[in-house]
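Entry 14. Ran structure prediction on the chain below.
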Amino acid sequence: MSTSPVETVPSAGDTVPGPRPADLHAPVIDWFGENARDLPWRRPEAGAWGVMVSEFMLQQTPVSRVLPIYEEWMRRWPTPGDLAAESTGEAVRAWGRLGYPRRALRLHAAAAAIAERYEGQVPADHHLLLALPGVGEYTAAAVASFAYGQRHAVLDTNVRRVFARAAGGSQYPPNATTAAERRLARAMLPEEPATAARWAAATMELGALVCTARKPDCSACPIADQCAWRRAGTPAHDGPERRGQTYAGTDRQVRGKLLAVLRESIDPVSRATLDQVWNKPEQRNRALRGLLTDGLVERLPDGTYRLPGA
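Output, structure tokens:
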């Protein structure tokens, strides 16, 4: 594999020249063809709705946790109309312990909009996808690319890390997506839409399986010889400190415990029952207020609590 780039692309930090995009496309896509995981949302029968559900669920959540919830969700609600016909509370209940349960509310809202505006069919147009409730730039690009084979830059954490290393010469991308990263991602796209969609999926998989955050397996990487970070001697990250998210003892944990009680109960739950889940009243009350504000919990006139519209 050649290690002498003929031209460069703009890097995420505009400091280290990277290889030509065309030199990366074939090896990464070929690697994907041989190593891609068999995930249910990648199968043809998943359709655009299956892709959309997976993208909502996979945000900040590993595949291993998503798989059982996704499969149950698609069995129960195989179309947007099926989900839209249910209460938001049932969506929150079925979300289980995936975390960040507001995603369930947003997915329910998107399903309702699809059922109302597009006769239950997930739109293919990127701008229409972006106009759906709860759908941001990443999700719109991912659905348009993975479900409809369109040419869009799909920038999740894994892709950003691959591009930061291979084209930018940095160990990690910035903490927040930058305009430079978006320009780089567009510059890296193959011209042919179907190939671009395959490239998007392939770079995401490469970041998830090989070019991982803590222990990248460069020996298994199809573009290791061309990687700007390796060419630079794998310099250590010199930007802001990267801190892992904590969970134990946080309001997020308390919210999760409160929601777990409500999910497991068919009937409304008393305040006394909720008070048993955490022994710090101030934090417990704050977490409950947050759930009420976010629309994840309802307080009934008799003082009991339930999932919204359950």
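The chain is about 50% helix and 0% strand. Will compare against last week's run tomorrow.
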